Amino acid sequence: MATSSSSSLSPQLLNTHFALRSSSLFPSSLQINAFSLCPPKSKSRLRVLAIQRPSKATVVTAQSWTTSVVDSKTPVLVEFYASWCGPCQMVHRVIDEIAAEYAGKVNCYVLNADKDPRITEEYDIKAVPIVVLFKNGEKCESVVGTMPKEFYVAAIERVLSSSS
């Protein structure tokens, strides 16, 4: 990204230069969390460390689990993920779409399995990504792995149509 003319810029000016030049590269819904200059021996002088999309699914933790999931009167979808998991990023995008489409019908949450091992153990989560659906505080459906959106939607529809 950095041109030869920007290689002589200070890091602060380079950051500004990158931000201005990148505005057409990234949609406005993306946030660049951090970037840094690479060591001189690196081929690239600029490296994007993290790009995040604003999530439509709310983060749930062990502290908020009972009120958000167990005591919810609305069906709940929870995506168990790990920050290092590539397939989890693909599932995030699908869950964000579902969160927007099912707003008011299903509460959508994401839980970092590495940060809340008590919850993952309690629900016998062995691998990520896994999407678990709850109704009246009880686990009733799960979709393991990265699947097409239709798999998640079908599980949601089964939960919404169930009488319990």
Describe the structure.
This protein has 164 residues and is an alpha/beta fold. It folds into two domains: 11-52, no CATH class; 58-161, Glutaredoxin, CATH 3.40.30.10. The chain has five helices and seven strands. The strands form two sheets. Strands 3-5-4-6-7 form a five-stranded mixed beta sheet. It has a two-stranded antiparallel sheet with strand order 1-2. The longest helix is centred in the middle third of the chain and has 16 residues, at 86-101. Residues 1-38 have low confidence and may be disordered.
Structure at a glance:
With about 160 residues, the chain is of the alpha/beta class. The chain has helices at about 10-20, 65-70, 85-100, 115-120, 150-160, and strands spanning about 30-35, 45-50, 60, 75-80, 105-110, 130-135, 140-145.
What is the CATH level 1 assignment of the largest domain? Alpha Beta
What string, H for helix and E for strand, traces the elements in order? Answer: HEEEHEHEHEEH
Q: What integer value in Å does the Rg equal?
A: 20 Å
In terms of per-residue confidence, which ranges show pLDDT below 50 for 5 or more consecutive residues? 1-38
Q: Taking strands numbered 1, 2, ... along the chain, how are they ordered across the largest sheet?
A: 3-5-4-6-7
CATH-defined fold name of the largest domain = Glutaredoxin
Assign the CATH superfamily of the largest domain: Glutaredoxin
CATH architecture of the largest domain: 3-Layer(aba) Sandwich
Gap from first CA to last CA: 55 Å
In DSSP terms (H or I, runs of 4 or more residues), the helix count works out at 5
